[in-house]
Amino acid sequence: MATTDHPLKVLVHQFGRDFAEWLLNTEVYSVEPVNVELVAETLRVDSLLRVVQANGDVVLLHIEFQGRRSMPAMALRQLGYLSQLVITHGIEAKLRSVVLYTERYAGQNDLGVNRVEDGHGVVTLEWRYLPLLLWQMSGKEILKTGRPALLPLVSLTRSDELPQVLPEVVAIVRQQTDEDLRLRLFNGLLALTSDEEVMKVIENQLASDEYEFETPYLRRWREKGLTEGRAQGLVEGRAQGLAEGRAEGQMDGLKQAVLTLTASRFDPPFSKARILESYIDHVTDEAKLQALVVQLASVSTFDAVLADLPNGAESSHA
What we know:
By secondary structure, the chain is an alpha/beta fold. It is built from 13 helices and 7 strands.
């Protein structure tokens, strides 16, 4: 599971109508989330919305978020999703499925059309979905939608354009008169940002703001995302080897403990917490994580923890 998955699910849940009108390219009357647990034990969709279009048609909008790694391949996962959704909701149901690829190079060979033939050139089965490569999109395309709720997605668009696009994004979010909406959008923008240079650009744009963007939203999103990642690691482990799945779950559990201790003991500014999170994202040694948990439980300041990380002391004063 990519670290952006849970923040994206939250955004779709909070702003379902905006996502529905964008992805269906039509005016929408109403949107409501649908239970996403399907029959198969390991089959769970990221987001499913029941959309009532302005013309009265009811459409099921299925959205998946995908990084570079997909097990099994996305085409086969989509076959399972689509078939189960049709079985659950009936063959008469109108269904639209979209995959938002969030990481560079992800989905670059996915055409969204797959078929099985019978050996004589006759198509026995065909299934379709829409692959959207966010990392290839220009952030200007998101701006042109005129939908503030979609602005956090700009963090996932073409990195070479972000220094030019982000100031406009930040300016639009600042103009929102609803303070809760403004905070949600800023937090979404930060939560979906993984590139350190991009993060610095955003933080520089926010430097004069009175708000602290280390709010509970971010912590809840990330803690929830790690919990889901641990569960998915165990499920995938059944397919690739139970021991491997348990090991992945154990590593994610230790990373969760690091973040929980950090939040409960120090509640550091988001920029500093980001340094630690970036470090543990790349740790593959269980012993290092265990030692970090012990250190977090015993030291008196968070800066002391950062000082022991590679280049941590320099980064903490950046």
